[in-house]
Design brief:
two-stranded parallel sheet; 4 strands; elongated
C-alpha cells in the first residue's frame, strides 16, 4: 500500500498566525474595538470561527459577508511564510513515494 499524507496548510505548513492576528486587529481598528494579542488569538481561535468574532465584539449574524471580505483582504496584504522545515518535510514525503494533498480553511484561490 502506498502511503498518503494529507497536510494542513494553515498553521502547519504556512506560518500564518501573525498575519491572522494582524488582519483581525485591522478589522477591530476599523470597528473601534480593542485589539487582541497573539496569545489571545491562539487561545480563542477555533472552528467554527463565528464565536471568535462574537467574543471580539463583532456581529457575524448581521455582518458576516463584510467580516469575511475584510479578513481575507487584510490577510492577503500581510506577510506570510512557510514554517521552518516545510519544504524539507514535503520533499522527504515525496522521496518516500508518498502521495500528498494539502487542506486549507482558506479559499482555494488564495
Amino acid at each position: 500500500m502506498t502511503p498518503y499524507i494529507i497536510w494542513d496548510w494553515n498553521g502547519t505548513l504556512l506560518n500564518d498566525v501573525d498575519a491572522s492576528v494582524d488582519a483581525l486587529n485591522h478589522m477591530l481598528d476599523d470597528r473601534g474595538l480593542p485589539r487582541i494579542s497573539r496569545e489571545t488569538y491562539r487561545a480563542s481561535f477555533g472552528f467554527p470561527v463565528r464565536p471568535l468574532y462574537v467574543k471580539l465584539g463583532m456581529d457575524p449574524d448581521h455582518d458576516w459577508d463584510r467580516i469575511c471580505i475584510d479578513f481575507h483582504r487584510y490577510l492577503a496584504a500581510a506577510p506570510q511564510s512557510l514554517r521552518p522545515d516545510t519544504r524539507e518535510a514535503l520533499a522527504a514525503a515525496r522521496a518516500l513515494g508518498a502521495g500528498q494533498s494539502i487542506l486549507s480553511a482558506l479559499r482555494q484561490d488564495f
